[in-house]
Amino acid sequence: MNWLVADGDGVSLRLHVQPGAKKTEIAGLHGDALKIRLAAPPVDGKANACLVEFLARQLGVAKSAVELLSGETSRGKRLRVAGVSADTARAKLS
What we know:
- By secondary structure, the protein is an alpha+beta fold.
- Helices cover 23% and strands 38% of the residues.
- The protein has helices at residues 46-59, 86-93, and strands at 4-7, 10-18, 25-30, 33-37, 66-70, 76-82.
- Strands 1, 2, 3, 4, 5 and 6 form a six-stranded mixed sheet that branches.
- A hairpin with a 2-residue loop joins strand 3 (25-30) and strand 4 (33-37).
- The chain is globular.
- The N and C termini lie close together (11 Å).
């Protein structure tokens, strides 16, 4: 699975994000990225904030442990989550 890579004391995630959906949920794979639908609109960083909050809740970490590495204004995003193992992240996001 190319969408999840162990990265020191955490993981890096490659995501394809669809803002403006009916509800926030994981929608399976999209190419080599994990697709996540977000209920938040892509306005003023609301979708990114919703994504960080959703991932933190799913993985059981603080929002401060989730860092947006790239893709701030695009659907393709890379994030890093500290304090979670690759196995745990895969189990909770698959």
